[in-house]
Specification:
6-stranded antiparallel β-sheet, 6 helices
């Protein structure tokens, strides 16, 4: 009897990031991911590993941070992201989309849009954070995505699948938190607490004073995949 062989496809454990917004030959073999549903799944699992209350507060803090980053771009007299060292990559002419801001350092790289953040550490991987939902996702990519101006163009990231991947994801989140804290320290030094408080207070859903944002981000510590300690969240005061 003649035997028939069934071909099997082996999927990579973690999806590799592609170097540009165009799908490469390698990435054509990776199932197209849905950022919204993937982040929602990661958010649900993080809530099971920590607490719903903490995730709610972290989500609100991240939302406030994105608001402040947006104001750093549009408030006169200068684009403070560019002043900090970011490179602005506008979308192609005729395309209505969010600019991408990239910051490259030997020890880490950051890609920032109005809707998401990608934080990359060489040989450690890539962290994807979506605005409005605290669901950290992971990729093994160690380079920033290029030619990306929309959410669906971001290279595939996935929900951590086991304890080791969750530990790696939370370590990347802690390093990203430390970078955000450093950025906020720079804002306070360069532009003053009054500026940051005014920006934060303008966000009607703000949960902390602008000048305390950096302290809270720096206090984020994941001791394990099931335990997190954080600074207290104080109600914002009118500047």
């Amino acid at each position: 009897m003649r035997r028939t062989r069934t071909a099997t496809r082996v999927q990579p454990r973690l999806p590799r990031g592609r170097p540009s917004g165009r799908r490469s030959e390698f990435c054509s073999h990776i199932p197209r991911w849905n950022p919204e549903t993937t982040v929602a799944r990661a958010d649900r699992e993080l809530r099971q590993r920590t607490s719903a209350d903490l995730c709610n507060r972290l989500t609100a803090l991240l939302d406030q941070q994105f608001w402040c980053w947006g104001q750093d771009v549009c408030r006169a007299p200068a684009n403070r992201r560019v002043e900090y060292g970011f490179c602005r990559l506008p979308p192609p002419e005729g395309v209505k989309a969010s600019s991408c801001y990239q910051l490259r350092r030997p020890e880490y790289s950051v890609a920032l849009w109005g809707f998401a953040l990608v934080f990359v550490v060489p040989r450690r991987g890539s962290l994807f954070l979506r605005r409005f939902k605290m669901g950290p996702c992971l990729s093994s990519a160690d380079n920033l995505p290029e030619e990306v101006w929309a959410l669906e163009q971001i290279p595939p990231h996935q929900v951590p699948s086991d304890e080791d991947e969750w530990q790696a994801t939370l370590e990347l989140f802690e390093r990203a938190s430390a970078w955000i804290a450093n950025f906020e320290d720079w804002i306070l030094t360069r532009h003053g607490a009054a500026y940051r408080n005014d920006v934060a207070y303008a966000w009607k859903q703000s949960i902390v004073n602008g000048e305390t944002m950096g302290k809270i981000w720096r206090a984020m510590r994941f001791g394990s995949v099931t335990e997190l300690s954080n600074a207290s969240f104080a109600s914002p005061e009118e500047p």
